[in-house]
Amino acid sequence: MPEAGDNPDSLMSLCTVFCLKNLRRTMCYTGERNKLCLRPDVFLPSEICDKLVNVYMDLVYTDSNFEAQDGFFQLFSDPRSTRLTRLQLRDLVRDKDVEAIKKQVGKLSVTRGLKSCILGLYATLLKSDFLLRLLNLGGMQAVVDVEALLKPLPALTSLDLSGVYLPRPAFLAQWRDRLASLVLYNVDLSEELISTVVQMSRLRHLDISRENQRNSKFKMTRKILTSIVQSLGNLVSLDISGHIMLDNCTVPQFEDAMGRPSIEPSKSSIYPFQELKRPLQFLGLYNTTLCNVTHIPAYKVTGSKNEEQVLNAIEAYTESRPELAHRAINQLFDIARIQHCSQLLRALQLVIAALKCHKYDKSIQVTGSAALFYLTNTEYRNEQSVRLRRQVIEVVLNGMEQYQEVTVQRNCCLTLCNFSIPEELEFQYHRVNLLLLKILEPARQDESIQRIAVHLCNALVCQVDNDHKEAVGKMGFVKTMLNLIQKKLQDRMCDQVMEFSWSALWNITDETPDNCQMFLNCNGMDLFLDCLQEFPDKQELHRNMLGLLGNVAEVRALRPQLLTSQFITVFSNLLDSKADGIEVSYNACGVLSHIMFDGPDVWSVEDPERDWVMDKMWDAIQSWDVTSRRNINYRSFEPILRLLPQGISPVSQHWATWALFNLVSVYPSKYCPLLVKEGGVALLEKVLELDSSQPETKDMWNYNSD
């Protein structure tokens, strides 16, 4: 069963997204001048219209693959076929969009940045005698006369004046018998304003919080807080975050420590709240000392005392107060990093929501991506569903697309390292590769990001099918890796970036001729020789380079480009290498085995001679311990098996037989089924029948059969 809160998307949600991504195939048609039009037989109730518009806004804002549709809001201009009741409009809405929906918006919730549009809509509503009950003027510029703006609206029941300058607050008293919700976040409080507020006896939600205490002349006192509680008997939600209490309004410490935490008002550790008739549903105490007491009469409290309060703060402030959400996410980061996050599912969902909602907010992206790294590590992995982990991946990729800033990129790359690669990234395979290759552009110099990104690139092309490798190759993968190698050569530095780059090239060229061709076309062989000369003692580097060249040598059409005196000499010398056990010698012999398989007629090299090279190959193979454990991984034996039933190059046949014997002997459970599946047993039996097969080769198979 899925965890609570982590259930699959509802059918309503799935259908809404499908329709929005396929408007002309579902509810719309193309009219004159390519205009998007609602089908005449479509009539949509308010629940569906609200869902369509609000999900549309989310997709435009958070999904990089979703394209905004010109004329979308015009679909909702006729209240006879569509009904809108509550919208969450955002900055990307244009004047003409607001104009289209102004005939029917009954409840309006508006984020900052849209005020010019909304004032025009507001004026239109006044002229049409529209009954406006909810109004959000948060962030309104000081030049606007708020008193004059609001007076014609006697029916207001909900008012948000966040950050608005109120020089004469007494005018708010005209709604004292109507207002149920009043938000005065970051409003400069005064005695006059407080005395006006406490007259509003019908208030159920009051927010007089601040972002911080700086630049605030007003001081919250025990007397003021008591007055609020006593006068506003219907309050269920109160936010006083960000205020400094001028005098002590908490019980003595010994009394606070008595008994188990209680939400009963009579036991409140905060004196003014002992006057409450019942516990509050919500109490904002973020960035105050009051959140640290034991007995708080509220079901949900924001603060920084513990994980529950921090998560409540992220939940409460993400949408409209990113500056506070940023701080709370940073505190969650510390909890996940230093302590233990006990509400993992909720924490992940809240951070994901914050990153989606504020993908253009650098501070949120930095702290959110850092928190995700710790919330998705091994410690928490078993508690996460596939769906949830995919949501994390999507929001991380959004951050990588939007921000080239070093910290965000590093956090996002590190978070991706917490996933099984390539399996868990397969659903975003093309996108993640493009983003990583962009990160690895030569202009980027941050070593830590470069190292992580190359590691991810390498993991992404390991153990995937050839179609994936070919697609990534066409994105410029091979050229990007070679550019990194070239830069490291110039710096005379063989580090993890250098080694990972060669390893990535080894993986992406495996059974992929087009990528092998790209490697040769981009002067890969010159870089191979330069690296070999510059770093003669780097065993891991040599192994990776020779593994890559083994892939190139498997492509018959490309082998002539390896058949030069210089390359053959280098490969022959590497047969004597003891680097990384037998791996470098083994891979060098594999390269030569494929070249020898083409026969003496194509051998165009005078020095060294073909027979001399073959003798060195025999000597090398005879020197290897057939029980050696290997640092190599085969997905298929096909390139090896093709060297078996032939007489043109016995040494190639011997290398192939030794390779199979070693692998099935040391790793029988992994490689015996693969050998049988690919018809290897029958081919080995043919080796025994061939007169050209050498006794050493036959003896190995006979020994293996016994």
From TrEMBL:
UniProt superkingdom: Eukaryota
GO cellular component: Cul2-RING ubiquitin ligase complex
Chain ranges of the Zer-1-like leucine-rich repeats region domain: 148-288
Keyword field: Leucine-rich repeat, Repeat, Ubl conjugation pathway
Domain Protein zer-1 homolog-like C-terminal: 355-700
Pfam families, A to Z: LRR_Zer-1, ZER1-like_2nd
Family named by the database record: Belongs to the zyg-11 family.
Protein name: Protein zer-1 homolog
